[in-house]
Structure formats: structure tokens, C-alpha cells
Amino acid sequence: MKKQLNLSLYLVLDPTLCGGIEGLVNTTKIAVGNGVTAVQLRAEQMFHRRDWYLAALALKQLLMNTPVPLIINDQIDIALAVDADGVHVGQNDLPVHVVRRLIGPDKMIGLSVSNQQQLSDVVWPDINYLGIGPVFPTTSKKDAAPALGLAQFSQLIIQRKCPAVGIGGINLSNVKAVIQTGIDGIAVVSAICGQRDIKFATTELSHAIYQTRMLRS
Ligand SMILES: Cc1ncc(COP(=O)(O)OP(=O)(O)O)c(N)n1
Ligand SMILES: Cc1ncsc1CCOP(=O)(O)O
Ligand SMILES: [Mg+2]
């Protein structure tokens, strides 16, 4: 099925929090069935390349007949190996123009920015979306930049020339405030991965996003 870049509710998967590859697939199945619009495999603690490949392949198969794209974090070879829909890279990963050359013109590239300088340096034609954050403190990324807070986040997002998500410490308690800034969507790890009730967690986030958008417009 043709994939859509809908960033409304972007699930960034952590296999450790989900309980391995089986948990990853189960979490994704429930989350996609209840409002998640994009999926990223981000496996910081997965050391074997074979495990990365098997996890990515399982997700590719799961999402095959859905409009939800599969994005691979950092690992270009894994994205190519499973014909994923795109790659997400940050400031310490391969440069975006190199990623574009490797994955071709039709795949999606997401880029992380954490401050004004990084945003000013973006080469817009090379990328499809931005991940801006951390918005709030997070425990899901060990080397995260300092949290922006909503005021600084709002200053950055008005300069975007492509769709963007907020990421970092976003959960049910603050999602409405993040959406009120006018951002295109949110990316979350721990607000869905490892939650006792994945369906409830996803549905509540999704409803909050759409309700806030309705009030915003
Ligand atoms: C949607 C989204 N936004 C930001 C990031 C962070 O990417 P990066 O800065 O490269 O850090 P790591 O995720 O590689 O630790 C992301 N993965 N996704
Ligand atoms: C990958 C990433 N990039 C910036 S913050 C972050 C982690 C977000 O995780 P959580 O949603 O659990 O705070
Ligand atoms: Mg990275």
C-alpha cells in the first residue's frame, strides 16, 4: 500500500521496553490499530546486526498493507535490507546528503534538530521531516540535548520549511500543550512502549491530538 507521511502520532519503538521482538511486533500491531500514524525502529541496546534485521523485517511485514511508513533509526544498511520507507538521522549520524545518495530519491529522510544553529544549518530539499527536541526531559535517550521547553520549541517550529514532530518527554499530561504550539505531530517512546495497556495509551494520545487540533483551527 502507498505510504503516507502523516506525523500526527509517531511511535519510536524501543525493543527493550517492549520486551523483545515479539513485544515490538505486538506493541506496533495494537498501536497502529489505535491511531499511530508512523513507526520508527530505534534499538539502542540491540547489538547484533541479525537482531536488527529480524526486527525490521517483522515490522516491514506487519506494516505492509497499511499506509503507515516504517522508518529505521541510524542504520542505513538495515533500511535498505528490508526496503523500509525511510531513515531517521541526527547530528552525529551520516550527513543527510550522503543518506539521500544511499537510499535514493523516493525514500523518506527525517533529521533531528535540538537548537537554533542546527535548524539554521538544515538543507531543506534533502529532508522530508524534522524531529525537534527534546521538548521535555527524557529518560529514553542517554545523550539527549537539554530540554527546550515549550517557549523555545515554539520559536524553532515556526521556522520549519517541512513537516515536523516534537519529541522528548511527551505524554498524556503534556500532549495538548505541545499540539497547541502548532506542531504537525508528536513522536513518543515511553508514552507507548512498555505501557501496561498499549491500546489505552495510544487511543488517549490520539484523541488528545485530534481534539486539540479541532480547538486550534
Ligand atoms: C522522530 C525522531 N526525532 C529525533 C530522534 C533522535 O535522533 P538522534 O538525534 O540521531 O538520536 P538517536 O535516536 O539516534 O539516539 C529520533 N530518533 N526520531
Ligand atoms: C529519540 C529521542 N530524541 C530526542 S528525545 C528522544 C527520546 C524520546 O523518548 P520519550 O518519548 O520516552 O521521552
Ligand atoms: Mg541518530
Topology of this protein?
Blueprint: E1 9-13, H1 15-18, H2 20-33, E2 38-41, H3 49-63, E3 70-73, H4 76-82, E4 86-89, H5 96-103, E5 108-113, H6 116-120, E6 129-132, H7 149-157, E7 164-167, H8 175-180, E8 185-188, H9 198-216
The structure holds the ligand Cc1ncc(COP(=O)(O)OP(=O)(O)O)c(N)n1, 4-methyl-5-hydroxyethylthiazole phosphate and magnesium ion (MG).
Order of strands across the biggest sheet?
1-2-3-4-5-6-7-8
Average of pLDDT: 97
Main beta sheet, described?
A: 8 strands, parallel, barrel
* CATH evolutionary superfamily: Aldolase class I
Question: What is the total number of structural domains?
Answer: 1
Which CATH first-tier class would you pick?
Alpha Beta
Bound molecules: ligand LCLJCK34, 4-methyl-5-hydroxyethylthiazole phosphate, magnesium ion
* Total helical segments: 9
Helix content: 40-55%
Please count the beta strands (DSSP E, at least 2 residues each).
8
Listing every helix as H and every strand as E from the N terminus to the C terminus, the arrangement reads: EHHEHEHEHEHEHEHEH
- Low-pLDDT segments, ≥5 res: none
* CATH third-tier fold name: TIM Barrel
Strand content: 15-25%
CATH architecture, by name, is: Alpha-Beta Barrel
- Radius of gyration, in angstroms, nearest whole number: 16 Å
Backbone shape: globular
Q: Which assembly state applies to the chains in this document? A: single chain
Structural class: alpha/beta
Measure the end-to-end span: 30 Å
Protein name: Thiamine-phosphate synthase
Cofactor: Mg(2+)
Keywords: Magnesium, Metal-binding, Thiamine biosynthesis, Transferase
Family: Belongs to the thiamine-phosphate synthase family.
